[in-house]
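Quick start: read one record
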Amino acid sequence: MLPLLLLRAAPAAACRPVASAWLRGAAHPACRHRAAAAARPQQVASFQGVAVRSLSTSSPHDHPEHGRLVYKGNLAKTVLGVKFFSYSTSIFNLFMMPYIMLKSGIGVESLLVQGAFYGLIGIFTFVTPVTLHLLTKGYVIRLYYKDEVDTYTAITYNAILAEKATVFHQKDVKIPDISKMFTTFYAKTKSMLVNPTLFPNPQDYNHLMGYDKSSVFKFEDLEAVKEADERK
């Protein structure tokens, strides 16, 4: 009975100098297993804490320069694809024009036939891309908002299909008197096109258009009218 108790107490007694012996790799195997098992939950908890802190401090909808993403257009890829196709067709027409003139013999025809041919080629080569750009240059693909300074950054496509950032203040927003097909509002003098239903938060759209301010004014006017009626 006594030898059995000594054998059971041996691993526990061997664990007492574990602080110095374990670092030198000479600790008892059972002690090393217990120490590793005790330290593992702390490491997991520490890793989980770092992961939670990193997720809470970063957001995929924030931009370090432009601010918070409040709007994203759903036709951005369509607009880019249509403009790219139009530009590609125009470049192809320019390269094919000498070959067509050589093979068809239009160069030796009358001036009327040549003018009609050049006019048709010019419409597809220059007029269509320019018109398409004028109609879609104000389409907002992304809109960011900075709460601290009350400014917006609208991302659109320029003539060479690159993204262009336009920064404007909320007070620079002007609503057209007559509704236009390709203009929702004017940022200073530049027309912008957005879809109100694509704003995740309707309050962001109301603030952009100034409807939150106008509603307060209308409510005050209504109260003034009611007071005037009561005095009568």
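Confidence is low (pLDDT under 50) at residues 1-33, 35-58, 216-220.
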